[in-house]
Amino acid sequence: MSLDQRLADVRARIKQSSALANREEPTLVVVTKNHPVELVEQLYRLGERDFGENKDQEARAKAQALETPENDYRWHFVGQLQSNKVRSVMEYASVLHSLDRPSLLKELAKREAKLDVFIQMNLTDDENRGGVNPSELLAFAERVLEVPSLNLVGVMAVGGLNIEPEKEFERVAFASQNLLTVAPDANKISAGMSADFEKAIAYGATHLRIGSLITGNSH
Fold first, then answer.
1. How far apart are CA 10 and CA 16, in angstroms?
2. Where do the domains of the chain lie, and which CATH numbers do they carry?
3. What was the pLDDT predicted at 161?
């Protein structure tokens, strides 16, 4: 299948799943990591405007190389962000999906980074994985709300291995409802990737991070 066919297929599945769940269609963030900027330009010509990357060095190069008439696109940083890369990322990214720890929040505040941010949650027992423990979500959210340059938009989660996605998405939906008690406008959920995005839609995902299903395998 060609890129436009793969994209059309995913778009059709998103539309169908949204209709079944009686929800608005979520924002599709096409994750373009390990692919050249030419692929991003193709996606732009096909109507896409939201692109995701997880490494600053690669994302920055693409952001500098991408040229469109209107510059009406958004870069989403979806990987774990090192504090020493904040200054670089804030120059091109509009959305950070992975605000996952106090030290990163401190650096974003110091730099007065103007970003929409999702708080990333760790749904596993592995403390080495990025993310805030769900029990600490509200306390951390209150700290985020104290940083005027940041716009807290919701929660993000990466599914664990060998776990039913429905169980995790249910926890994410519950956490999202909890978050609204301290941040009434932070009603977005970044969840769902190539393998499970239809299930994520059913549980209220507003942002899908889909890569290889659209972009194909990188070489």
1. 10
2. 3-215 (3.20.20.10)
3. 67
